Amino acid sequence: MKGQRAPLNKSPNQSLEYKGLRPFRAPTWRLGSRPLPERIRPLVMGIVNLTPDSFYPDSRLPDPETAVTTALRMVENGADILDLGAESSRPGSVPVGGPEEQRRLLPVLVVLRQQTDIAITVDTTRVETARLCLEAGADGINDVTAGTAEPNILNLAAEHDCGLVLMHMRGTPQTMQDDPQYDDVVAEITTYLAQRAEAAEAVGVAAEKIIVDPGIGFGKTLAHNLALLAHLDELGGDRPLLLGASRKGFIGAVTGAAVEERLPGSLAALGAAFTAGVAVVRVHDVKASIQYLDILAAVASAHRSSA
Fold first, then answer.
1. Residues in contact with 216: Cβ distance below 8 Å, sequence separation at least 6, in sequence order
2. What letter would DSSP give residue 305?
3. How many CB atoms lie within 10 A of CB 182?
4. Residues 137-150, mean pLDDT to the nearest whole number
5. CATH number for the 43-306 domain, one of 4.10.220.20, 3.20.20.20, 3.40.640.10, 3.40.190.10?
6. Which of 131, 196, 248, 262 is catalytic?
C-alpha cells in the first residue's frame, strides 16, 4: 500500500531485540610505575615517528623540535600514552643501526620527560637502545619482534619492571610481505602471542606489565588482516591486547584510499577494537580517534543506563 513501509526480510533466527553496544571491558595493562587510568574505552597511544621514512609521510618527524611540539599537542588532545620510534618497520625498510636510532630518540625523550608526565614507550628491538631510554625516563618497551631479535630485551624489561609490548611479525620488515602464509592465522597468532608472553614471564616480567599485539600488516595479506580484526576478542586470551591499524595498507586494499585519505578506515578499525575489548589502540590521529571512541563509549553507557 502507498505510504506504508515494506516489511523487513528477516531470517528465521534473526532476533528483533536491539542489543546495542556492550559496555567496554578490557584487561588492565600496568605500564611501569605509571599506572594507566581506568577508562570506558581503549587507551589511545599516539605515534611519534622520529624517522624520515615512515609509511605515512605526514607522520614523519625527523626534526627533534617539531617532534616534541607534535608529541605535546597529542598530550593536549588527550593521548594516554606516547610511543616514540626512531627506525621505520614498514615493509621494505632498512635498519638504521643502534647509534643512529639512539641519536634520534634520546633528545626527544629527554625533553618530553621534562615537560610531561604522560606514559611513554619506545618502539625498539635493541637492548642497548631500550636500556638508555628506560634510564632517560621511558616507561615501557614496544618490541615488534616480541623479544626474538635480541632476547635479552625481555630480561631488561624484568630488571626495570617496565611495560612491555610483544608484537607478532612474520619474517623481517624486508621479507615479511613475501607471500606470507598461515594454516589458521587467528589460531597461530594467538598461540604465538601466548608463547612470547610466557617467555617474558619466565625471565621475570610481571604478567600485568605485558600487552600483546597481533601486528596488523606485519607479514599478513589482506585476508589475514581482516580475519584478525574479526577475531580481536580471541587473540589476547586473558591478556590485554594492543591494536595498531592506523592508516595501514589493508584500508587501501579494501577502499582504494591513499594513505593520506585513510582516517575513516582507521576509525572503523577502532570500532572493532572497542567492541572486542582491546585495551590500547596505537594511532596517528589522536584527536579524531578520541572523539570517535568517546562517542562509542557514551552510546554504550546510555544503552546500559536505559536497560
1. 225, 228, 229, 243, 244, 245, 248, 250
2. H
3. 16
4. 97
5. 3.20.20.20
6. 248
For the whole model, what pTM was predicted? 0.90
pLDDT digits over 107-137, tens only?
999 999 999 999 999 999 999 999 999 999 9
Alpha helices per DSSP H over the chain: 64-76, 98-115, 127-135, 152-160, 185-202, 222-230, 232-235, 249-255, 263-276, 286-306
**What gap in Å lies between CA 209 and CA 271, rounded to an integer?**
25
* CB contact set of 304 (below 8 Å; sequence gap of 6+): 23
- 19 carries an active-site annotation: no
Query: What does pLDDT average to over the chain?
Result: 89
The Cα 21–Cα 166 span in angstroms is 29
- pLDDT (0 to 100) of residue 110: 98
C-alpha cell read off for 104: 634520534
From the list 243, 236, 249, 235, the residue with the least C-alpha distance to 176 is 249
Q: For residues 241 and 138, what is the distance between their CA atoms, to the nearest angstrom? A: 20
Q: What would the pLDDT profile of 284-304 be if each residue is shown by its tens digit?
A: 999 999 999 999 999 998 875
State the pLDDT confidence band at 171, using cuts at 50, 70 and 90: low
Is 10 one of the catalytic residues?
no
Q: How many CA atoms lie within 13 A of 118 on its CB side?
A: 27
Which sequence spans correspond to the domains of the chain?
43-306
pLDDT of 29 reads 94
